[in-house]
Each structure stands twice: as C-alpha cells, then as structure tokens.
C-alpha cells in the first residue's frame, strides 16, 4: 500500500528537542534537515545529533534525511553517514539526472528523493523523475522563487509553470511529489488556501516548517467524506452497469467510466492508508 505524504515536516537536525517532539507529532513524514536550516558551524554536531535521533521510534512516519549539496564540503560525508538508517535521502538542488547518479553511488541501498528548486531542474524535471533510484520529489519554492526573481503572490502565479512541470514529470514516472513550504507559519488561512491549490493540482501533500501547520495539511490532502461517499457510489453503480452489459454508468448526473473507477479506488485506498497510519 502506498504511504500517505499529506504532511511532510522539516526539522532542523541541530534541534534535538524538535526531533524528539516529532516522534509524537501527526506528520505523515519527516524531513530531517542538514542543509538550509543548519548553520555552517552546526553542520558537524547536527550530523551526530541526527544519527542518534534516528535510533528513536518514529512509528510509521517516513524518515527522510536532507543532506547538504554534494558540491559542498559536507555533502559527501552526510550521504555516507545516512546511506543507511533512514527511509530516504533527499538531495537538494537537483538540476539534472547526473546529480542523482553521484548520490546513488554514495547511497546504494536507500531510495533517493530530489529537491526540485532550480530553474535548470524545472527544465530537466522529466529526466530527473525517470531516474531509476528516485522515489519522490519535493518542491523547493523558496529557492525557485529566488532563482526566478519572482515576487511572492498568494496565487503563486510565477511558480505555476515549475510546479506543473514537476507534477507532470512525477506522475509520468509514478513518483511521490509534495508541494513547497508556506513560510508564514502563523497564517492559517493562507496555509489552507495554498494547500487547497496544491491538492487541486494533484500534489500528494505539502512540506511544512512548524507543527501548527500539520492539522490543516492532513485535512486538506485527505479525501473528504463527500469524496469517499461518491467513490463508493461510483464503484457500485459501475458494477451494476457492467452486470447489465453497459460500459458507462451515471451518478449524480455525470457519466462514470472505467477511468473514474480507477480514481475512485485510489481515493478509497488513500483513506485506508491514512487510517492505517493513525492506528
Ligand atoms: C520556524 C521555527 C524557527 C519556529 O521555531 P520556534 O520559535 O521554536 O517555534 P515555537 O516556539 O512556536 O515552537 C513550539 C514547539 O514546537 C516545536 N517545533 C517548532 N518547530 C518544529 C519543527 N519544525 N518540528 C518539530 N517541532 C518543532 C518547538 O520545539 C516547540 O516545542 P516545545 O519545546 O515542546 O514547546 C521552527 O519551527 C523551525 O525551525 N522550523 C523548521 C525550519 C526549517 O526546517 N527550514 C528549512 C526547510 S524550508 C526549506 O528549506 C524549503 C526549500 O528548500 C525551499 O527552497 O523552499
Ligand atoms: Mg531550498
């Protein structure tokens, strides 16, 4: 069963208290960050703190380690240190598939994830997504906005080309893909609107920077009661139509074909996976 990735919480690996707290937080996945959230002077101690933290029990939460770039003085050491012991290694600023080749050599047995946050990465999203070792993609909307020279807009118009391109690439190759962070972590309405936009586009979930953002992401990226009810009724109606030798059913005045049944089944499976995670 595919794991849900509704809420993916960043935690600075230098913050022992936050890493401990995360063992009980309602995050579907955690990104332990060695990159941007850790100051250069803290890089070495953060690596040790994280190695100790990963021995703790995080339940079913996926544990993803974001290493420093392999072009930095810390990247290779990070990759070697966490080649085992985490559920995935997240490589920052992936601009081309060869960036993942290098990571794959250093991390032979653990799935790789890619931060999609450079202009070149957007243009190469398809070849990055099809890399055989890649499991998931994370939008880095802060770095992307910086590279583009984009202004912040609530509708994220300047970022939509990049978001859509990465989503297409991820879906073409069956990868998980989660949306970027919403920086104003006390603005609940703003977060909800951005989660709704990401959900409408098709993202699996949202990366988050503060525990206060978890509940909204978990709610928005889960199927609603209405969606579940519709999915069940579509499956029943289609089975009935099929029994009568028809290829199409009608539910609530809309046609239901086999492709809608695939979506309906995926909706029910997602709800089941979420329920399992909570149990
Ligand atoms: C943003 C923060 C610096 C705020 O921290 P703080 O002032 O400590 O918040 P609170 O006092 O409200 O914290 C309340 C309690 O919650 C815990 N806490 C806070 N944040 C986290 C967290 N991320 N995970 C787990 N627990 C957390 C505190 O320890 C408090 O606990 P308690 O002691 O029990 O009261 C801080 O939230 C923070 O550092 N957030 C993460 C920032 C980060 O990781 N940034 C890097 C990723 S974003 C990025 O790089 C995206 C991408 O690359 C791009 O380009 O877009
Ligand atoms: Mg970034």
From TrEMBL:
Keywords: Magnesium, Metal-binding. Gene3D superfamilies: Phosphoenolpyruvate-binding domains (3.20.20.60). Signal peptide: none annotated. Residues 6-211 form the HpcH/HpaI aldolase/citrate lyase domain. Belongs to the HpcH/HpaI aldolase family. The keyword Cell membrane does not apply. Pfam families: HpcH_HpaI. It comes from Paracoccus laeviglucosivorans. GO terms for molecular function: catalytic activity; magnesium ion binding. GO terms for biological process: oxaloacetate metabolic process. Mg(2+) binds at residues 117, 143. Substrate binds at residues 66, 117. InterPro entries: Aldolase/citrate-lyase_domain, Citrate_lyase_beta/mcl1/mcl2, Pyrv/PenolPyrv_kinase-like_dom, Pyrv_kinase-like_dom_sf. Its cofactor is Mg(2+). This is (3S)-malyl-CoA thioesterase.
